[in-house]
Design goal:
Chain lengths: 160, 785
């Protein structure tokens, strides 16, 4: 039988305590237990990036981390980043440039490019491509995503 | 007061309204639904490519915690009728009977032979390990040529392994080859690949025993087709079956077929009288999502010294797995290769032979661009080969042979009727766009420095907006007609219900644009609803590049009638002649002065809430439905041309994609940005098949690379920027004039890439002809390994 551990973590600013089976990964926990279905599952083996979330400020693959490992930590998802307005400009640029089609990769993609924007606000197109090269998108061919990120970085830099 | 200017939304790049929810993680994909009493199904799949089930013991699995049912094929067959995937117009096609869960025998690695239903997916997966199955392995036929030879016959009810064959020849093929100055011949291999939608196949079926109703939430492209199939195979009246497709995480043809495990899930919902969910995980997606494009083709082409193409001679062999896929069959891809090879050129002579054979690998069926990537690649590769032999520039050789723009209507050598194409204009535009002659000069210079660049061109024709000639005539209950219902709401908003579905292409956005123009409202006042058989008109859904051209025309016609009906109401309210009135920018105006006479909000209020103030003999009709079926031609053929610039590292065999161009003609462009992004995404999907994607099977039918780590899909770092342009030749078969664009990128990219690589290898007298063009194959061609 599954071992269950009581776990307390912060999800998008709210403290949550749950009894979690140790084998449950973070993305399943967020989706099934908390109802945050914006984080997606594309492979469950760490390759596609659809499950990307932010834990203590760093992006991680939610399918490669156990939910119980998030005990005491701060987890942020696409819902949290959307509601706080942190990535509103990026979302707007994605929208205008049609940098999404089916949208299944989009939450993971947005968290990944926001991570780049925070780390390297001067990133070139090549660096943008490099940074998202762990996020699979079947629909767009990537160019529109690169364009939208580039536009956002330029706009942010001119404001800074 | 001046009337607001009439906003002409068709032709504008308006961002898609429905993208907002997806950007905030607020979409509703099938796996996001939350349903009471839901249980989860997982499947026990054959580890063998071909094996008899000697003993299947589910008792221990059934006893595991949380397990509700453990079911084999015999039990499930009581709830789900089997099927045979043939079509009347593919003469002689045959396929064995397929059950939702295999009975007695598994015919490919991954075929489901039992199902476990449990309270959680984890519990169901735990129970899978407790299934005891004793197998007697049977010989697996995995090689297409061996299958064709028929030494080992897969299905005991047949005498050979041939699913379908076709031969076609014009009268003077042999004579054309006899008089040719040059005959070129080459054999091409295409590896199997698959769609890899980021969202796997997903289905949640809910059966209400009290009402005998079945509601299926499904990640699908064709809700009405599935409604018909669930109804017939589960024996539930059609009107009691409702199929709903909310957000779909990519489809590309993967989600337009009947899958045995999805049928089993729906049957289990009926059997267990409760909601059952199936979500394919990535590993089972590789084993069971349809594969495509495993072909071996011998192609010959005859031409004159002066560079005139006289004839093509094609011999295509394709392996489709053990069953033809229901209901579209697995004969269509090869059939398209026959219909489309040589398509852009004006030769009169053509011979083709096609053999579609069964194998013990996963099933293949229609995947984005169906047959086109193959037909285009082989045609364009052999055209380049001939140009080289004749010492002609590949662009120049093509120019001499393209069907001229003034030759339409035109019937191609295999008998395809085309209304109006624009090969010459597209070619001219492409050469300017890419700066062709400068690139050629640069190529020569770089070669001197040991840098090997290649330029590849691929012209193409493409089947879009199919008429009933595609499936309907063959007896398939697949609609080539679509419908749109437009309703003016009391506030003056327009609700638009369409039978074409959305999977990210932007279908809903373009319908809103068309509806806004047709009715005379602003686009933000239109709300589009698709993907629900319970509420939309009946129609085919999304496949074969048909959404804009067919669904869009239905929206346009519906919108025009709604506008007329609005004017009827306005005429009565204003006691004015309706000829003097029009609808513009959410208002009824006087056409002579442009003055606003009445807002649609006020008109709606009166029509819905105060009809007592209208004449007794007047009834408003502010909801309109119209349908459209393309019928004038079998298909609305489109055309386009692509070019690729690459660099080959001759020491490592690695190919760097530098740039890609596409000029295509999809007729009326409703939303330029959406069309361009469809093409870009399609190009990258084509590049994937050409460069890296390959479902590798061992000789005994084991998939060797069925994970996303091993099966290589295109990622951002390696992909080029793509430049897209258009020639616009609207089809006259509809008022909207739109043809399809969704598959063009995928159709042409592999051919352009293949030619670019071979162009780079030209100084070494090396050629690659087997896709995907891996570094290993390139080094092999260079004689380095
Ligand atoms: S689902 Fe986690 S990386 Fe693919
Ligand atoms: S938009 Fe569909 S996978 Fe990226």
């Amino acid at each position: 039988m599954d071992t269950i551990i009581e776990t307390t973590l912060t999800i998008n600013g709210e403290s949550v305590t749950r009894r979690i089976p140790v084998r449950q990964n973070l993305v399943d926990f967020l989706r099934e237990e908390i109802g945050l279905t914006g984080t997606h599952i594309g492979c469950e083996h760490g390759v596609c990036g659809a499950c990307t979330v932010r834990v203590d400020g760093k992006i991680v693959r939610g399918c490669l981390m156990l939910a119980v490992q998030a005990d005491g930590r701060n987890v942020e998802t696409i819902e949290g980043l959307s509601d706080s307005g942190e990535i509103a400009d990026l979302q707007d640029a994605f929208h205008k440039r049609n940098a999404l089609q089916c949208g299944f990769c989009t939450p993971g993609m947005l968290l990944t490019v926001q991570d780049l924007a925070l780390q390297n606000p001067q990133a070139t197109r090549e660096q943008i491509r490099e940074h998202i090269s762990g996020n699979y998108c079947r629909c767009t061919g990537y160019q529109a995503i690169v364009d939208a990120v580039e536009t956002t970085l330029i706009a942010r830099n001119s404001k800074a | 007061m001046n009337a607001p200017a009439f906003a002409n939304y068709v032709g504008q790049s308006i961002p898609r309204a429905n993208a907002r929810r997806l950007l905030q993680g607020r979409g509703t994909y099938t796996d996001d639904l939350r349903v009471a009493r839901l249980v989860h199904v997982v499947f026990f799949r054959s580890p063998h490519a071909h094996a008899r089930i000697v003993k299947l013991d589910l008792a221990q699995a059934r006893a595991m915690p949380g397990v509700i049912a453990a079911i084999d094929g015999v039990t499930l067959a009581k709830f789900c009728k089997p099927w045979v995937a043939v079509l009347g117009h593919l003469k002689g096609i045959k396929s064995p009977t397929q059950h939702a869960i295999a009975i007695d025998r598994a015919c490919w690695q991954g075929e489901a032979v039992a199902a476990i239903v449990a309270q959680t997916r984890a519990q169901a997966e735990d129970a899978l390990e407790k299934i005891e199955c004793e197998w007697q392995p049977l010989p697996a036929v995995t090689d297409m040529e061996a299958s064709l030879a028929g030494t080992q016959v897969i299905h005991p009810e047949f005498s050979d392994n041939i699913c379908f064959s076709r031969e076609l020849a014009t009268d003077g093929v042999d004579a054309a080859f006899a008089k040719a100055d040059l005959v070129v011949e080459e054999t091409y291999d295409f590896g199997r690949h698959t769609g890899v939608t980021l969202e796997g196949r997903a289905l949640l079926a809910d059966y209400n025993a009290a009402e005998n109703t079945l509601t299926v939430h499904q990640s699908t492209q064709a809700p009405h087709m599935m409604q018909d199939i669930f109804s017939r195979h589960l024996d539930i009246p059609e009107g009691n079956v409702r199929v709903i497709a909310r957000d779909v995480g990519g489809s590309f043809g993967i989600k337009v077929h009947v899958y045995a495990d999805e049928m089993a899930t729906a049957a289990l919902a009926v059997m267990l009288r409760r909601p059952v969910k199936f979500i394919a995980d990535r590993l089972e997606s590789f084993l069971t999502d349809i594969h495509a494009r495993e072909h071996k083709i011998k192609l010959r082409m005859a031409c004159t010294k002066a560079g005139e193409i006289l004839a093509f001679d094609l011999d295509d062999l394709t392996g489709i797995g053990p069953y033809s896929v229901y209901p579209r069959t697995s004969g269509i891809e090869g059939n398209q290769v026959v219909n489309l090879t040589g398509g852009p050129y004006k030769h009169q002579q053509y011979r083709a032979k096609l053999n579609v054979v069964f194998t013990n690998k996963n099933l293949t069926c229609q995947y984005r661009a169906v047959g086109h990537p193959i037909a285009v690649a082989i045609t364009e590769a052999i055209v380049d080969l001939a140009a080289n032999k004749l010492g002609l520039d590949p662009a120049e050789f093509r120019k001499r042979n393209l069907v001229p723009d003034d030759a339409y209507p035109y019937t191609s050598a295999p008998g395809m009727k085309m209304e109006k194409l624009s090969h010459q204009q597209c070619m001219d535009k492409l050469l300017i766009l890419m700066n062709y002659s400068v690139l050629r000069t640069e190529q020569i210079e770089l070669r001197k420095r040991g840098v090997y660049r290649g330029i590849g061109i691929a012209a193409m024709i493409e089947v879009t907006n199919p008429s009933p000639a595609f499936y309907g005539v063959g007896g398939a209950r697949i609609s080539s007609q679509d419908g749109a219902t437009l309703r003016l709401e009391p506030t003056g908003m327009v609700t638009c219900l369409v039978s074409v579905t959305e999977q990210g292409q932007g279908t809903e956005a373009i319908f809103a644009q068309i509806a806004a123009d047709a009715v005379g409202v602003s686009v933000d006042r239109v709300r589009v609803i698709t993907g629900d058989t319970g509420i939309t008109p009946y129609g085919g859904g999304t496949w074969a590049s048909r959404g804009a051209g067919i669904g869009g025309e239905a929206v346009l016609q519906s919108g025009k009638v709604l506008r007329a009906n609005i004017l009827d109401v306005a005429g009565v309210i204003l006691q004015a002649s309706r000829e003097m009135l029009d609808v513009r920018d959410n208002h009824v105006i006087d056409v002579r002065t442009g003055n606003v006479k009445l807002s649609l909000t006020e008109l709606g209020r009166i029509a819905y809430f105060r009809p007592d103030t209208l004449p007794l003999d007047f009834q408003s009709e502010l909801m309109v439905t119209r349908h459209y079926t393309p019928r004038g031609y079998g298909f609305a053929f489109t055309n386009g041309i692509q070019a690729s610039l690459i660099e080959v590292d001759i020491d490592t065999g690695f190919v760097k994609l530098l740039k890609h161009w596409c000029v295509e003609d999809c007729g009326t462009v409703i939303n330029p940005q959406l069309v361009d992004e469809q093409i870009r995404g399609g190009i990258v999907q084509g590049i994937g098949g050409a460069m890296t994607e390959h479902c590798l099977y061992s000789g005994d039918g084991q998939l060797q690379n069925g994970t996303l780590a091993d099966y290589l899909v295109p990622m951002a770092a390696e992909m080029p920027d793509m430049i897209i342009d258009h020639v616009i030749t609207p089809t006259k078969t509809s008022e909207l004039g739109a043809k399809g664009a969704g598959e063009a990128g995928t159709a042409g990219a592999p051919g352009a890439i293949m030619n670019a690589i071979n162009d780079a290898l030209l100084p070494f007298n090396a050629r690659v002809t087997a896709q995907p063009f891996t570094p290993e194959r390139i080094l092999g061609a260079l004689g380095k390994i």
